[in-house]
Structure formats: structure tokens, C-alpha cells
RNA sequence: GCCUCUGUAGCUCAGUGGAUAGAGCAGCGGUCUUCUAAACCGUUGGUCGGGAGUUCGAAUCUCUCCAGGGGCGCCA
């Protein structure tokens, strides 16, 4: 389905061309034609201010341009009329017959209603969550998880084939610490004399979850690991952590298609290939300090073993970056560049990274690296998630996974609901910082807009249930009997393709929850006025209204699924 | 200091260069013998952070100033 605004725009373009050929408009290059849903009933259903924009280039009054366009407008089944309104707006009104037809289209298409094909034949990848398996997902990760999955769903609706990927590192010092920590808990659980490190031991993961995992390990393997070092513990802990993480994500209906291990880039030498390629391009130098440092800095560091530097300043970076440390170990940046190279080579047309805002600089450097490799860095799109501050009792809750004082995503879901978490975190512009008030989320969960939207679905389901008990069918309904208000609601539903297009093109998933709220906001007042089984409602009209509400229910189900939320029949 | 994000109703936030800036919550006053009142109806509430500029037209684009968050590591 093509967005209605585009269909209107196509007509306007044809009209301008026809007017130019007829000599009613002078020759000029036709710009992109803006079409917006009208805000007021008297201004029709869709409106275009294109005549105002053309006034200068056509050297004519906007009103005259608008009239010329309308005069040459081709006929279309979805258009009832086009009128010109000062200072030069063109107001389109949708055909009632066509609109009525869309009710059946909505029922037939159901969960695919509003789908586009702008991504037709294209593959997109969304990389999100990507937390190392050192503990349960803490609440600070929630926003990125929800936003990432929301984007993936929108891209799917836009016609892309989407892969959800999770990037992780299981080889670092943090994973070793996790293994060591589990070992301590294991020995403790077996009653061995072992000292439990206190909070001052920064390497030790204090979280309760490691005690549970130690218990599991004993059930499975008894005391077989009494003399083992940290490594088998790390392997066991990692598997256990991933299981927990996946289960948590599944609660909010998030499922990754691929898990990419950073370590594989070491094992297949990908990172060293990248380093060689950068070197061949002249982007690498070895030195104890950055090029261009002052004499005293050079002097101070002259005994330091040389590190390997990336000349990212060639691409506008404020300073060069280290790729390989003095001790010969790569920094995080090198595998990250290799990872993105790998992604591009896998043939995706569109790459989306959902990252915390604190990764801004790191991501820039990766893009410079991709450029230096001669690859198309513009394929990489980044959604930077601004911080979520967890607030309780009006005070910020500090989160530290290692000390075990975290609030997990699981906690948040338990305290509210999966649907509330999805809606609340998806409804905000990722660029905006937000405070997540834990008290508010718990105490006032009934005030959440999520219930307002779901209740609309419930009410439709209620009507259909009532019809069933009464043995009342909408077979052969004459939809031309339908109320103006119902048709206005249908018109609003037809904005969905435009909404999906905008969200997909700008990677702005938060617009969909807002649209869903708008739809619900138009629904509830109508529900009170447009009754199916009300007193004095003609049976034929009731039949038409019943069919209409069948479509409305399909619409809400569609919206809720698009947001990864449940569509309850009862509340 | 440099980079970046944010500033819109009491609060939380939408808003794609277009017509009279919106929603939810909170507030105030009403409405259930009805397909679920988790709802509806009415109503209060705005120098779109300040200033200048571009434009036929600016919450939206540019500049500048103010305020707040984040980042500027041979950490990941």
C-alpha cells in the first residue's frame, strides 16, 4: 500500500505537468509536493501548501497556481473533491464510497494493514541490547532494548527483511571476573573456607544471582570443580546469564535472530586484516604518543612502548585514536571497526545501531575507520539513546551491576507490566533524556495511556461478543448507512501507512505510540455515540456499525502488535 | 575549552517550513438500570528558554546568548 499522502502528491505532480503543457503554468522543475492530513474538518481530509512554495518560481499568485493545479487534477477513485482555499491551500476530500471500501480492506488485511513496500527486496539489520553476559539486564538497558525492537518492527512493516542482532564480548577481563566470582560462590556453597570479597573488591560481582547459579552448578556437577580455575566457571556463568537475558527479553516479546561474538573477530584474524588494510592506506602509525604532541609530552612518554594509532583526524576527528595498546592488546575500537566491516560485507542495505549516548565518540571513530577502509559508512545509522535516570522517592537510584544494587528490567516488568514497559519506553523520543519514576510506574500504572489504547480493543471485542450472544451478524452489511463520525475515524486509520513511512525513514519509533494514542482518543468518544445495540438503532444500521467495529478492532490489534504489546479481549 | 542532546500547559511529553501550537496526567463541574464508567461531556491552563536573522509563512532552518544532561581514556 502506498501512503495516501504520496498518492495525493502523485496526482498533484501530474496536474502541474498537465497545466504546464496547457500553458496554464510556466515551465519549472517540480519540487517535492508536501501533503498533510488536515487538522480541521472544514479543511477536508488532506491539504497541500504547494502553491505557496511555487509562487516565486512560477511568478504567479499562490491562489492562481492552486486553481490551475485543481483544474488539471486527474480523476482518482479516492478523491471526492479538491478545493482551493486562501492564501493558496488545496484541500482534498476523500471519496465516501472509497472510504467505505477501506473498511473491508482493513478487515481483510488485519495485521498487515498499512504495510509498505519501500523496503522491498532490501535487508536491514538492527543491532541492539548487546550487553555482555555478566549479569541480568539492568533497567538502564531497557530503553535501548525496547527502542531497538520497535525500530525493527517498523522496518518490517515498511517492507524490509529485518535481522535483529546482539553483539557481545565473552573474552574480556570482566568475563574472567565473572568466572572468578562464580568460583567463590561455588566454594562458599560447598562449605569450603573461602573469603567473600566485600564492596571494596571492584572485580567481584556481588549479585545474588551468582549464588543461584552456583547452586545450579552444584546440582549438575557436584564438587567436581573443587580444584578448577576460573575458566569452567566463566563458561557456565556465561551460558546461565544468556539464558536469563533471553528469558527477560522474551517477556517483552524481544527475540534476536543472531548473536555475534566479538571474539570471533580475533579467532579469524579479522581485526588484524583491518589493521593491515588501514596501514596500507596510510592511516596507521606507531608511536608512544600522538603525532603533533608538544615536546614535553613526547619527552615524558619517550620510554613508553609504542602504541598503534589510527589517523582519524584525517576524517575530521579531534584527535587520533589508539587501536593497539603498548602491551600489544587491541583496544575496543579495533574489533568494533572489524565488526562493522563484517556487517557491511554481509550485504545489508541498512544498518541500525542502537547505542547509549555515551558511545557517541566511539561510534564516530568506528565510522571514520569504515571510511578509511573505503566502505560506505552512510549505511550505518545510529540511534543514540539518551540516559534514563531511575528515580525513586524523588531521588536518583544509582545503578551498578557489579555491586548487585541494580534494578533489573525484570524488576521493572514485575512492578508494572510488559505492556506498560514497552509503551512507556517506546513513546519517548530517543534523543530526549527521561526520568523513569519507579514509584509512578508502580503506583499509577492504571493511568498509563497503554490501558486507554488496550481498552479500545477490549470494547470492540465486547461488541462482537455481544453480537455473538444475540446471534446478530454483520453479513451483507450496507456500509453506506454508516455515520459521518465512523468515516472520520476510518480516515484517521488511513494515516497509518504515512506514519509507518515517517517512522521508518527517520528511524523515529516513538511516533507510532503517539499515533496509537491519537486513534484511541478518537475512538472512545465515538464509542459512546455510535452504538450498535442502542435503543432505537435500526437493525440495518446496527449491522453496518457492527462491521465497522470489526474493522476498528483489527486496527487496534494491528497497532498494538506493531508496538509489541498484547491485545486483550477482556480487562 | 571542544563535541553532542535537551528546553513547548502545573507535571510527563508529541509536533515532517504551512491555516487558529496538541495529547496524556493533574485540577474544577457534571454523566452508569445501557455493547465493560480502565469510559464520556463541559471547563481551566501557553512571552514554544531569551534575542536577532532567513522566508510569502518559523515551535520547526541559521546565528548568538542562557539553563540542564551526556561524551571528550593506551576502559569496554
Question: Which key features would you list for this structure?
Answer:
571 residues; Isoleucyl-tRNA Synthetase, Domain 1; RNA-binding; five-stranded parallel sheet; four-stranded antiparallel sheet; Gyrase A, domain 2; alpha/beta
Cα(first) to Cα(last) distance is 33 Å
Please provide the count of β strands. Answer: 15
Number of helices: 21
Give the radius of gyration.
30 Å
The portion of residues forming beta strands comes to: 5-15%
> At the third CATH level, what is the topology name of the domain at 100-117 and 446-562?
Isoleucyl-tRNA Synthetase, Domain 1
CATH-defined architecture of the domain at 100-117 and 446-562: Orthogonal Bundle
Indicate the CATH class of the domain at 100-117 and 446-562: Mainly Alpha
Which sequence of strands runs across the widest sheet? 7-6-5-11-12
Q: Mind telling me the CATH superfamily name of the domain at 100-117 and 446-562?
A: Isoleucyl-tRNA Synthetase, Domain 1
Structural class: alpha/beta
What is the residue-mean pLDDT, rounded to a whole number?
A: 90
Helix amount: 40-55%
Note the main sheet: 5 strands, parallel
Low-confidence stretches: none
Query: Which descriptor suits the 3D outline?
Result: flat
What does the model show?
The protein is of the alpha/beta class. It has helices spanning 4-22, 50-58, 62-71, 96-109, 142-157, 173-189, 209-221, 230-251, 264-267, 270-280, 295-300, 333-345, 360-372, 409-415, 418-426, 438-443, 449-470, 484-493, 496-506, 511-529, 539-562, and strands at 36-37, 46-48, 79-85, 89-94, 123-127, 161-168, 258-261, 284-287, 307-310, 321-324, 350-356, 380-385, 388-392, 395-396, 434-437. It has a five-stranded parallel beta sheet with strand order 7-6-5-11-12, with helices on both faces. Strands 1-2-4-3 form a four-stranded antiparallel beta sheet. Strands 8-9-10 form a three-stranded antiparallel beta sheet. Helix 17 runs antiparallel to helix 21 (539-562). It binds one RNA strand of 76 nucleotides through helix 2, strand 9, strand 10, helix 13 and strand 15.
Amino acid at each position: 500500500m502506498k501512503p495516501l499522502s504520496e498518492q495525493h502528491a502523485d496526482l498533484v505532480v501530474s496536474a502541474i505537468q498537465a497545466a504546464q503543457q496547457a500553458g496554464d503554468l510556466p515551465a519549472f522543475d517540480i519540487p517535492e509536493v508536501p501533503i498533510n492530513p488536515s487538522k480541521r474538518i472544514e479543511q477536508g481530509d488532506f491539504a497541500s501548501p504547494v502553491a505557496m512554495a511555487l509562487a516565486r518560481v512560477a511568478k504567479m499568485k499562490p491562489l492562481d497556481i492552486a486553481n490551475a493545479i485543481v483544474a488539471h487534477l486527474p480523476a482518482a477513485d479516492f478523491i471526492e473533491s479538491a478545493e482551493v482555499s486562501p492564501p493558496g491551500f488545496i484541500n482534498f476530500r476523500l471519496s465516501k464510497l472509497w472510504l467505505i471500501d477501506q473498511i473491508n480492506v482493513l478487515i481483510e488485511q488485519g495485521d498487515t494493514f498499512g504495510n509498505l513496500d519501500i523496503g522491498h527486496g532490501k535487508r536491514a539489520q538492527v543491532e541492539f541490547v548487546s550487553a555482555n553476559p555478566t549479569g541480568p539486564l539492568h533497567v538502564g538497558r531497557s530503553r535501548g532494548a525496547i527502542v531497538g525492537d520497535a525500530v525493527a518492527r517498523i522496518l518490517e512493516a515498511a517492507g524490509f527483511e529485518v535481522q535483529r542482532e546482539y553483539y557481545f564480548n565473552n573474552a574480556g577481563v570482566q568475563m574472567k571476573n565473572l568466572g572468578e566470582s562464580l568460583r567463590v560462590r561455588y566454594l562458599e556453597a560447598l562449605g569450603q573456607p573461602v573469603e567473600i570479597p566485600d564492596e571494596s573488591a571492584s572485580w567481584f560481582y556481588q549479585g545474588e544471582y551468582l549464588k543461584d547459579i552456583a547452586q545450579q552448578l552444584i546440582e549438575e556437577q557436584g564438587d567436581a570443580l573443587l580444584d578448577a580455575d576460573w575458566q569452567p566457571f566463566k563458561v557456565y556463568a556465561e551460558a546461565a546469564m544468556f539464558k536469563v537475558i533471553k528469558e527477560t527479553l522474551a517477556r517483552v516479546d524481544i527475540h534476536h535472530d543472531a548473536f555475534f561474538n566479538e571474539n570471533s573477530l580475533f579467532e579469524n584474524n579479522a581485526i588484524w586484516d583491518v589493521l593491515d588494510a588501514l596501514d596500507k592506506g596510510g592511516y596507521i602509525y606507531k608511536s608512544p604518543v600522538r603525532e603533533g604532541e608538544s615536546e614535553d609530552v613526547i619527552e615524558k612518554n619517550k620510554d613508553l612502548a609504542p602504541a598503534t594509532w589510527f589517523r582519524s583526524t584525517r576524517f575530521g576527528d579531534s584527535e587520533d585514536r589508539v587501536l593497539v595498546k603498548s602491551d600489544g592488546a587491541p583496544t575496543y575500537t579495533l574489533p568494533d571497526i572489524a565488526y562493522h566491516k563484517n556487517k557491511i560485507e554481509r550485504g545489508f542495505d541498512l544498518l541500525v545501531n542502537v547505542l547509549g549516548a555515551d558511545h557517541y565518540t566511539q561510534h564516530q571513530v568506528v565510522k571514520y575507520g569504515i571510511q578509511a577502509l573505503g566502505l560506505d559508512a552512510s549505511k550505518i545509522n545510529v540511534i543514540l539513546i539518551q540516559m534514563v535516570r531511575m528515580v525513586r522517592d524523588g531521588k536518583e537510584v544509582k545503578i551498578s551491576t557489579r555491586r548487585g544494587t541494580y534494578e533489573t528490567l525484570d524488576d521493572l516488568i514485575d512492578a508494572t507490566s510488559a505492556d506498560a514497559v514497552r509503551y512507556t519506553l517506546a513513546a519517548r523520543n530517543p534523543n530526549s533524556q527521561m526520568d523513569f519514576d519507579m514509584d509512578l510506574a508502580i503506583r499509577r500504572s492504571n493511568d498509563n495511556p497503554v490501558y486507554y489504547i488496550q481498552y479500545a480493543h477490549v470494547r470492540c471485542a465486547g461488541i462482537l461478543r455481544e453480537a455473538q450472544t444475540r446471534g446478530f451478524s454483520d453479513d451483507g452489511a450496507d456500509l453506506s448507512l454508516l455515520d459521518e463520525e465512523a468515516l472520520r475515524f476510518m480516515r484517521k486509520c488511513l494515516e497509518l501507512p504515512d506514519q509507518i513511512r515517517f517512522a521508518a525513514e527517520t528511524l523515529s519509533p516513538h511516533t507510532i505510540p503517539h499515533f496509537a494514542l491519537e486513534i484511541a482518543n478518537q475512538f472512545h468518544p465515538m464509542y459512546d455515540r455510535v452504538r450498535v445495540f442502542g435503543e432505537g438503532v435500526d437493525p440495518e444500521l446496527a449491522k453496518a456499525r457492527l462491521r465497522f467495529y470489526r474493522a476498528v478492532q483489527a486496527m487496534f490489534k494491528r497497532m498494538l502488535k506493531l508496538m509489541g504489546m498484547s491485545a486483550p479481549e477482556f480487562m
